[in-house]
Amino acid sequence: MNQIEQLQKIIANTDNIVFFGGAGVSTESGIPDFRSVDGLYNQHYQYPPEVMLSHTFYVEHTAEFFDFYRDKMIFSKAKPNKAHYKLAELEQAGKLKAVITQNIDGLHQMAGSKTVLELHGSVKRNYCRRCHAFFDEKFILQSSGIPTCSCGGEVKPDVVLYEEGLDWDTMQRARSFIAKADVLIVAGTSLVVYPAAGLIDYYRGNNLTLINRASTATDARANLLIQASVGEVLGQISIE
């Protein structure tokens, strides 16, 4: 039995799956990750990406932050790939209980997933810091300099920047889903960004599946390890 067949059997025998994904889930949709050869960390800017995406930089260099944010963080033409669509199908079939994602692109919802926990927020949501009015990503893209609400307030993306804490309620829900899961599929993440990476410590089952192109420090803990692209793997799974 090959690895895909093993995963197929695991999925067929449960209706309590939780999926935890990172940037590798969206790379096949044309959205670069941070740490691969072509990722943001290997491109050259005046400041490192983790500095430009920090709370301090946002506060002290707001206009430069938005220039970088518009250029490198919003991919309005990106479409869901096989992984996103398969996860939505698994949820609709009653097998997948939740998608927990480190991504901010909104592609899981675009593919049809309903229960999506966005640990790091979403580029699709932006709010006025003064009156809390909502703005979509088009508003940010079409603005120049610092986006401003009609009330005069600054519009901030609903994304978690470096130095900012994750939403407590979202983390609690994620922990709960993982702790109760029979099967945990972790995919497309290097598992080095905390506190998100620590979520897998709450899993108590014996069906931990890791799908990732590169090795991670957690590989030895996996019951099933598949080193391939997420879309390539999940695209071969059938739902009976």
TrEMBL record:
<feature type="binding site">
    <location>
        <position position="131"/>
    </location>
    <ligand>
        <name>Zn(2+)</name>
    </ligand>
</feature>
<feature type="binding site">
    <location>
        <position position="189"/>
    </location>
    <ligand>
        <name>NAD(+)</name>
    </ligand>
</feature>
<feature type="binding site">
    <location>
        <position position="34"/>
    </location>
    <ligand>
        <name>NAD(+)</name>
    </ligand>
</feature>
<feature type="binding site">
    <location>
        <position position="105"/>
    </location>
    <ligand>
        <name>NAD(+)</name>
    </ligand>
</feature>
<protein>
    <recommendedName>
        <fullName>NAD-dependent protein deacetylase</fullName>
        <ecNumber>2.3.1.286</ecNumber>
    </recommendedName>
</protein>
<keyword id="KW-0479">Metal-binding</keyword>
<feature type="binding site">
    <location>
        <position position="27"/>
    </location>
    <ligand>
        <name>NAD(+)</name>
    </ligand>
</feature>
<feature type="binding site">
    <location>
        <position position="23"/>
    </location>
    <ligand>
        <name>NAD(+)</name>
    </ligand>
</feature>
<dbReference type="InterPro" id="IPR028628">
    <property type="entry name" value="Sirtuin_class_U"/>
</dbReference>
<feature type="binding site">
    <location>
        <position position="128"/>
    </location>
    <ligand>
        <name>Zn(2+)</name>
    </ligand>
</feature>
<dbReference type="InterPro" id="IPR026591">
    <property type="entry name" value="Sirtuin_cat_small_dom_sf"/>
</dbReference>
<feature type="domain" description="Deacetylase sirtuin-type">
    <location>
        <begin position="1"/>
        <end position="240"/>
    </location>
</feature>
<feature type="binding site">
    <location>
        <position position="105"/>
    </location>
    <ligand>
        <name>nicotinamide</name>
    </ligand>
</feature>
<dbReference type="InterPro" id="IPR026590">
    <property type="entry name" value="Ssirtuin_cat_dom"/>
</dbReference>
<feature type="binding site">
    <location>
        <position position="149"/>
    </location>
    <ligand>
        <name>Zn(2+)</name>
    </ligand>
</feature>
<dbReference type="InterPro" id="IPR029035">
    <property type="entry name" value="DHS-like_NAD/FAD-binding_dom"/>
</dbReference>
<keyword id="KW-0862">Zinc</keyword>
<feature type="active site" description="Proton acceptor">
    <location>
        <position position="120"/>
    </location>
</feature>
<feature type="binding site">
    <location>
        <position position="34"/>
    </location>
    <ligand>
        <name>nicotinamide</name>
    </ligand>
</feature>
<keyword id="KW-0012">Acyltransferase</keyword>
<feature type="binding site">
    <location>
        <position position="120"/>
    </location>
    <ligand>
        <name>NAD(+)</name>
    </ligand>
</feature>
<dbReference type="InterPro" id="IPR050134">
    <property type="entry name" value="NAD-dep_sirtuin_deacylases"/>
</dbReference>
<feature type="binding site">
    <location>
        <position position="230"/>
    </location>
    <ligand>
        <name>NAD(+)</name>
    </ligand>
</feature>
<feature type="binding site">
    <location>
        <position position="190"/>
    </location>
    <ligand>
        <name>NAD(+)</name>
    </ligand>
</feature>
<comment type="similarity">
    <text>Belongs to the sirtuin family. Class U subfamily.</text>
</comment>
<keyword id="KW-0963">Cytoplasm</keyword>
<feature type="binding site">
    <location>
        <position position="104"/>
    </location>
    <ligand>
        <name>nicotinamide</name>
    </ligand>
</feature>
<feature type="binding site">
    <location>
        <position position="35"/>
    </location>
    <ligand>
        <name>NAD(+)</name>
    </ligand>
</feature>
<keyword id="KW-0520">NAD</keyword>
<dbReference type="Pfam" id="PF02146">
    <property type="entry name" value="SIR2"/>
</dbReference>
<feature type="binding site">
    <location>
        <position position="212"/>
    </location>
    <ligand>
        <name>NAD(+)</name>
    </ligand>
</feature>
<dbReference type="InterPro" id="IPR003000">
    <property type="entry name" value="Sirtuin"/>
</dbReference>
<comment type="function">
    <text>NAD-dependent protein deacetylase which modulates the activities of several enzymes which are inactive in their acetylated form.</text>
</comment>
<dbReference type="GO" id="GO:0034979">
    <property type="term" value="F:NAD-dependent protein lysine deacetylase activity"/>
</dbReference>
<keyword id="KW-0808">Transferase</keyword>
<feature type="binding site">
    <location>
        <position position="151"/>
    </location>
    <ligand>
        <name>Zn(2+)</name>
    </ligand>
</feature>
<feature type="binding site">
    <location>
        <position position="102"/>
    </location>
    <ligand>
        <name>NAD(+)</name>
    </ligand>
</feature>
<feature type="binding site">
    <location>
        <position position="104"/>
    </location>
    <ligand>
        <name>NAD(+)</name>
    </ligand>
</feature>
